Amino acid sequence: MIKKTDYLKTESKAYHGAIDFEEISAFGLTADAIVDFSVNSNPYGPALAVVDALQTATISRYPDKACLALRQTLGRQFNLSLDQIMVGNGTAELLWLIDFAFIEKTDKVAILEPTFGEYHRNARLMGAEICEWRALVENDFELDEAVIEQLLAEQRPAIFHLCSPNNPTGYQVSNQLLERWSLLSPETLFVVDEAYAQFLPHYESAMHAGLPNVLVLRSMTKDYSLAGVRLGYVTGPVDLIRVLEQLAIPWSVNEFAQIGGIAAIASQPEYEAMWHDLGEEAKQFKAGLRALGFSPVESPMHYFLMQVGDARSLRERLLAEGLLVRLCESYDLPNYIRLSTQLPNQNKRLLNFLQVEKSLQA
Question: At residue 63, does pLDDT exceed 80?
């Protein structure tokens, strides 16, 4: 039987994008000097109404541990009842809580790779056995539905982690497919991470699929640009949400996050305009990379994988110029980087750098 101390001896933390403050200090850089292509957040920043709302926070009293006002706002937005919604300190906390609640030692957890590293890490911390299926770049990261269904039938996992749209590949799991899998494996809890769903204008959410063994996660840190305050929520059947509420850490969602979340939802039209502009800019950014001879992996998302050869060396040269990209070794794609579209002038900076490098190599 695995112990958490055994896990710590054999595996490191999940690797993520974002600024490593110790690393950039070695380059003589500050966070404000970095253009961060390594995270998939909305680069336009929070709406002004959100910034104004944060000034009203009362920091001398405990926040509402039930997040009542925010849950009411989310309930109205998605036509859900209060007892179908739980708010957390980002989806990272909620993913950990779900695995803590529903995984017993020696259970199996299914994961579709490559994907967000916390699924694997959390499951291993709970003593689970990982059964994974890996999409291949040579097949354009397409899902082999028959093989995945065979995995479900043979392994009978306690939990199946799905990221849709997936990070880093952008593939999506339709509600039709999710329903089929749910009916085939009623004993499996399907955890659908929709952190990036709102970046796609016509995304089909699993929130209203009405499936008894499906939980849906949303992050407000990416789409609403609230990474600094950490905010996310999970929706699903009342009985499952109740279990999570009973096990949750009290007051994990601070006052700023709750106020910011409410103000962000009130600014939905402004954000939708940002997401549209980001999608259009992503097309231009990818076209610029192709013009330089690169081949960004096809994806409907504003973030994407791209093969570059010696990825570590390129990342270091870019970072020296204040341009941060994400390595993909944790995805078992060592020759790739992941790029997330930024503001037009920032994307131009990266394209100009790559153009100069190409000319020097010619």
Answer: yes
